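Is this the right way to post structure tokens for a design question? Let me know if I should format differently. Anyway, here goes:
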């Protein structure tokens, strides 16, 4: 009887732990390049979602390399196939996928994930409403 209760509790705790672990893992990584360790990178300072794809890939690769180097487990952080969100200095953002951690252009932007801030898109507080297209 006691063993059965213990097994039931252990089963519940297992599922709670599994759900919590999955939730943390699924949340993903967001890297804001305005942090001290990213701000001075040569390819990051001038990059936005409107920059060419090569410039964005180069900047995101630099960000990923610094993120890996500052983590506790650099060889297992951001493995190939993982995605992360980069918030560029102007506030625009995009998701990128790690293709090869050892390559200089080791990330690829995910098409359609680019997001520009409202002010950069030409939307101001004066024309927000039913018709919020840039004028």
């Amino acid at each position: 009887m006691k063993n059965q209760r213990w097994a039931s509790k252990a089963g519940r705790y297992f599922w709670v732990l599994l759900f919590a672990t999955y939730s943390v893992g699924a949340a993903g990584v967001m890297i804001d390049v305005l942090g001290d360790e990213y701000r001075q990178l040569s390819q990051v300072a001038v990059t936005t979602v409107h920059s060419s794809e090569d410039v964005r890939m180069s900047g995101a690769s630099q960000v990923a390399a610094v993120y890996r180097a500052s983590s506790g487990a650099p060889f297992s952080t951001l493995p190939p196939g993982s995605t992360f969100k980069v918030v560029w200095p102007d506030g625009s953002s995009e998701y990128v996928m790690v293709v090869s951690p050892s390559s200089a252009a080791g990330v690829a932007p995910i098409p359609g994930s680019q997001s520009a801030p409202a002010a950069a898109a030409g939307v101001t507080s004066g024309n927000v409403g039913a018709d919020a297209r840039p004028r």
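Format looks fine. Someone answered above. Worth noting: The radius of gyration is 20 Å. The first helix runs from residue 2 to 27.
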